[in-house]
Each structure stands twice: as structure tokens, then as C-alpha cells.
Write a structure and sequence with these properties.
Strand content: 5-15%
Radius of gyration: 18 Å
Distance between the termini: 37 Å
Strand order of the largest sheet: 1-2-3
Number of strands: 3
Structural class: alpha+beta
Largest sheet: 3 strands, antiparallel
Helix content: 25-40%
Shape: flat
Amino acid sequence: MGRWARCREEVEGGISQPRKYTLDLDLLKETGMTGCKPVDTPTEYNVKLSNVNNGVPVSKERYQRLVRKLIYLSHTRPNISYVVSVVSQLMQAPYEEHMTAVERNLQYLKGTPGKGLLFRKSNKRGIEAYLDSDWARSAVDRKSMSGYCTFFCGNLVTWRSKKQGVIARSSAEAEYRAMCLGICEEI
């Protein structure tokens, strides 16, 4: 059996790396969330997390361990990469609201264990890129977030979510900076 046929069989049969890692390798077991209720999105709408908080601190080691596992999983699950980038910025002083965001992400993963990257043969030719920015998203330093994804022959090949280096004065400036980042990737 060829490599691609074996890969297709594993994905269609439900034995994919993201699924196995999410369900079998202590990601949900470690948090005691194997019986949790799945959710439809990896984060709540319009939630802004900051490192300035008067909330209850949580175990730094446990938080960092969970976020490291999510970082590893985000290599095959680009749909969680934005949330993971946000919670990874808060690893030095995590609070309850930060852990709640991580747990929400785990609930999302429980509901979507078979999701991940799948490369298919396509008649579609060429490169497509999509990009966006979120003006002044960070509550800490007011910097904007840029993100892009690139498709080659209809398959997702690169993606990135990154905080912009400077504070944009307008949403238009944030969009231009995002376009620059995306175009540099295309070139």
C-alpha cells in the first residue's frame, strides 16, 4: 500500500495524529476534561486577555505544560493557532481567566478530534492567500494582530498569526501591515 493511500485510510478511518494526541495522550485526561461538554469555537467571542489582572493566580507549571502541548498540536491544527498564540503570551503570570481560555480550547478540541490538515489532489492550480488584521487587539500594549494563510493547489501550506511590531494608528494602517506580511510570504 502506498504512502498516500495509507495516509488517506488513516484519516478516513479516524486514526489521525491530531485525534490520537488530543484524545489519547493525556491532553484531556490531564485536566480531567474527558467528560466535558464540547464547544463550537476555540475561544469566546470578543474576549481580551491581558497580563494585568487582579484575579486568582493558577499553577504556573500546569498552565505552561498545557500551553506547550497546545503549541505542539497547533502545528497540525491551524484553527487553534490564534488562541494558542494569545495564551502563550501569558505564561509568566497565569490567572484563572487565562486557564479558562485554555480549558475552552480543550473543550473545542474534544468536539473536533478528527479535524486537522488533509492534503488532497486537486485540479486547482496556483497560489491563494488570505490575510486579516485585528486593530489594537492586545489589551496590554495596544498592538494589532496580523494573520494570513496560504493555499497551494487548494491545500493549506502556510499560516501565521503574529503581533505587529509597532502600534498602528488606524485599522487601515494595521491592514496595510498585514498585507505587507502576507505579500512577503507569497514572494
